[in-house]
Write a structure and sequence with these properties.
elongated; 209 residues; 6 helices; two-stranded antiparallel ribbon
């Protein structure tokens, strides 16, 4: 059994944690299951994964969490629609049997069987159509999620770079302000060291103090 890690989290590990947690939210799972899954992959405890998610990663993916919750609702609606079709489809075995008994006692007519098979076909087509649409939606969601993860990470990196540039700019402004004050003081000091006096011809001449 591999030892439990306690070192610092990398950016790739944060991305993996976010991807797994959002997937569990979208598919109706629990965050605890997500933490356990990530912990096994990264050789960390589920508690460590939960702490990392709640203290740092979750704040970076607020919009992703809302999107995953909306997707979970949409998936539930699709499942409910399929179940409703299955429950309310007018063709069933009981329906065939009751129709057959009503028409000819215990005999099953050819037209009743055809009607029953056509109903099953319509039900199968409707279910397969929902399933195909669901697969396409799921694949598109996964692609968009990956783009969202990388864009969020890139945004965080750029924000840190911008903050560093702003700090450098403030430091540069402070240095220029100190240099300006030093030049002003030197000019004032130079002016105080200079005086003028009258020469023999009645002209003013500059004399250093």
């Amino acid at each position: 059994m591999s030892p439990t890690r306690q070192d610092a989290w990398s950016q790739d590990e944060d991305l993996l944690l976010a991807e797994v947690v959002l997937r569990h939210i979208r598919e109706g799972g629990t965050q605890l299951q997500a933490f356990e899954e990530v912990g096994k992959q990264l050789s960390r405890t589920s508690a460590a994964c939960g702490f990392r998610w709640n203290s740092y990663v979750r704040k970076q993916y607020k919009s992703g969490i809302e999107l995953a919750k909306k997707q979970r609702k949409e998936l539930k609606k699709q499942d409910a629609s399929i179940e409703e079709i299955n429950q309310h489809d007018p063709v069933s075995v009981e329906h065939v049997q009751s129709s057959s008994n009503h028409e000819q006692g215990s005999k099953v007519t050819f037209s009743t069987v055809i009607h029953f098979l056509e109903g099953l076909q319509r039900q199968a087509e409707a279910s397969s159509g929902f399933e195909e649409e669901r697969k396409k939606s799921t694949e598109k969601i996964k692609e968009l999620e990956k783009k969202t993860y990388y864009l969020a990470a890139e945004n965080e990196r750029l924000s840190k770079n911008l903050k560093a540039i702003e700090e450098d700019y403030r430091s540069l402004i402070e240095i220029m302000e100190r240099a300006r004050k030093m030049v002003v003081l030197q000019d004032e000091d130079r002016q105080q060291k200079v005086k003028f006096q009258m020469d023999k011809n009645g002209n003013l001449e500059r004399v250093e103090k």
